[in-house]
Amino acid sequence: MLRFLVILAAMMFGTALLALNAERLLLYHFDETRISPAAAGEPRLSEVLWQTPVGDRLVLWVAPPRDGRPTILYFHGNAGNLAGRVGRFRGFLDKGYGVVAMAYPGSSGSTGEQNSEVFQTLAEAVFADLPNLSGPGPVVVYGESLGTGVAVQLAADMGDGLAGLVLESPYTSILDVGRAQYPRLADWLYLLPNPWPSIDRIGAVATPLLILHGAEDQVVPTDMGRALFAAAGSDTKRLIVVEGAGHNDVWQANAQSALYRFLADR
Predict the structure, then answer these.
(1) Are 185 and 178 in contact (CB under 8 A)?
(2) Cα–Cα distance measured from residue 182 to residue 247, given in angstroms and rounded to the nearest whole number
């Protein structure tokens, strides 16, 4: 019996280890290159370095808002780094919005363990420290692709404590994306500690909501954005389906116009 339990424990450990490695290898394709905001072309942003409780480094790009406008707390997608989003940040700053953009471990010089629970814990810590980072004032949380799961959970936990929530190319859950993209490996994703089940959480989101989704998205099907829109608990919500856009090119003129109209009301 003891031998059986030892073997069973070893199998369970091996399975869990495989699941965690699958999460890292399948989901996270960050660029670890650390580039300063100025070197990326936006000197109005400052690089802020945090030391996490376990001694890792967390990189943030920060700029305060002007004239009482909201700060945009930005969670990027599963590839690239903060420098690759500098054009977006420049657009926010040009219109007076503040920016606090968090680089996940493995992105932009941040270090540490790459898993969904760690990302969510870091996001919550950054949100709690926003008054020190960008000053007091309203906050709009922006999630891009992978970051939509982080953003939805944060917004659900905050209740009506946010000025708004923007989701770009959002998924109903990582499990659903896994089934669509990696059907042979999807079963392993059931072991993820936090598969970001946004479809189960978005009903608790009370803040005004804007969803942007490409009509031709082959990575996260548009139907996932529609399902989240239908399930959202927000009284004020809007879904913009960008015709001709896929997963990575939603940031088009009509989407930007809808976004800035949404932000102007916050």
Answers:
(1) yes
(2) 17
Query: Token pair of 134, please?
Result: 């960008």
Per-residue pLDDT for the chain (266 aa), expressed as one digit of tens each? 333 223 323 334 445 555 556 666 678 999 999 999 999 999 999 999 999 888 999 999 999 999 999 999 999 999 999 999 999 999 999 999 999 999 999 999 999 999 999 999 999 999 999 999 999 999 999 999 999 999 999 999 988 889 999 999 999 998 898 888 777 766 666 677 778 899 999 999 999 999 999 999 999 999 999 999 999 999 999 999 999 999 999 999 999 999 999 999 99
CA-CA distance, 111 to 122, in Å (whole number)? 12
Which residues, at least 6 apart from 53, have a Cβ–Cβ distance to it below 8 Å? Answer: none
User: Tokens at residue 45, please?
Assistant: 């942003």
The DSSP secondary-structure symbol of 179 reads H
Helix crossing, 116-128 with 146-158: angle to 10°? 50
Alpha carbons 69 and 93: distance in angstroms, whole number:
10
In angstroms, how far is the first alpha carbon of the chain from the final one? 62
Domain boundaries, the chain: 2-264
Q: Which of 60, 265, 61 is nearest to 163 (CA)?
A: 265
Q: Sign of the C-alpha dihedral, residues 200, 201, 207, 211?
A: negative
Distances (CA, A) of 89 to 41, 166, 226: 11, 14, 27
Distances (CA, A) of 230 to 161, 178, 179, 209: 22, 22, 22, 11
Q: What number does CATH give the domain 2-264?
A: 3.40.50.1820
Alpha-carbon distances of 159 from 186, 204, 207, 234, 244, rounded to whole Å:
32, 7, 7, 10, 34
